[in-house]
Structure formats: C-alpha cells, structure tokens
Amino acid sequence: xxxxxxxxxxxxxxxxYEDRTVEEDKIAAILECGQYAPSAINRQPWHFxxxxxxxxxxxxxxxxxxxxxxxxxxxxxxxxxxxxFDNFNGAPMAIIVSGEKDAVYAPADCAxxxxxxxxxxxxxxxxxxxxxxxxxxxxxxxxxxxLDELSIPEGYIPLYALSLGYGNDTLGERAxxxxxxxxxxx
Length: 186
Description:
This protein has helices at residues 3-10, 24-35, 54-68, 74-81, 106-123, 145-149; strands spanning 46-51, 93-100, 127-131, 156-165. The chain is α+β, with helices and mostly antiparallel strands.
C-alpha cells in the first residue's frame, strides 16, 4: 500500500503520552508540512505557536477549567471537576494554529494545516490529538491575557491545536466507519 495512504488510514488520536521530549528536527518537519497545506488563493492565513514548556500547557488548561466549572451543562462541569483534567492529555508539547481574523477561509485552511501536521507526526512515529477545546479561556475576557503570553499576532485568533508526543496509549480496535456517507453522481 502507498505509504501516504497507509499513514492516513493508520493515524489515530492519542490521549496519553510518554514523558519524553520531541526532537527538534521532527518538530521542524511537522511545521513544514503544516506550512505546505493548501489554502484558499494561497493566502496561508496561519500562524503556528509551538509550546514545548509543559507548564504553559498546564496554565491554559487551568484557565479553561475555571470557565468550564461554571458551565450550566452538567456533563461539562463533571469533565472539569476531574482532577486529571487537561486539554492537552499530558502531551509534552502542542502547536497552536491561529488564523487571520479577516481571512474568510482561515478555519478551513488552518484545519488543513493541522491535518497535514497530524499525518506527518504519525509518519515520524509520534502521536497527536487534534484539539479545539483548548481555546475556551482565550475567547473570554478573563483569559484574553493568554493571547499576549502566547505571542498570538494581532489580527489572528487561535483556532486549533495539535498535541504531540510519543504515544503511551493502548488503542483498541478502530471503530467502523459510518455507512451511507458517500453518494456518487454519474
């Protein structure tokens, strides 16, 4: 089987990681794959924030937890009450992908970049998890200070994150794909 297709079909979200640093050359290769993602009219409306300091990831999770604990939705509050709550699942690092506010297709373009990076990470023997919940605090006034601390450029908003590291998950059998999701028009 073609290696690219094999990596796409085998890649899984990893939510448990070894306490092991990701090598700089692997991070650089993953970022380059993100930068080469397709974007509408080749605008490339993204900015990548690489966080290798675990205490910064803990701070983001802590700010999110404060907001989630106030949620009117019981399931959300229960999730935040878990002492092990962590948006980044214990990963040693994450890459936040922010998009230009005035780029209409920035969410789709940045999603393309994250998927490229996730597939690249898998091909390099790393685990990853595509995350959108990390930005809850940054969207609120009380957590907006994080945008400055993370050096998110003016005119950009955090859209997605990719946690990265050496996976420590024992994955079960993959869930079957939903049926009746393809229509051919001839």
